[in-house]
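Lab notes, practical 5.
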Amino acid sequence: MEAAFKAIASEPRRRILNHLAGGPMTVGEIAALFEMAMPSISKHLSVLKEAGLVHEQKRGQFVIYSIASDNLVNALYSFLTPFCPDARRISADRKRRRRTK
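Output from the prediction step:
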């Protein structure tokens, strides 16, 4: 969870996640939306990947990035559960569903 919060503490990384919410993208497509060099975008994507917040998939010469939404949601619920009754209820419901599968 700490890695996820450290990753989303960066405004450019939050913006990348926001863009990826619209669907998978290549690093070039992401870089075109920013005023920074592609190596900087690649570094941000690396941090997001190491935190488990994005997936990468090679397709030919391209690498496609997409949001790892389950990991992001799990990190947020883990953080919120002690503070929020709704998060505790949702977390308990999710655990029950996993046990019944």
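Observations recorded by the TA: The helical segments are 2-8, 11-20, 27-31, 38-50, 69-80, 85-100. The first strand starts at residue 25 and ends at 26.
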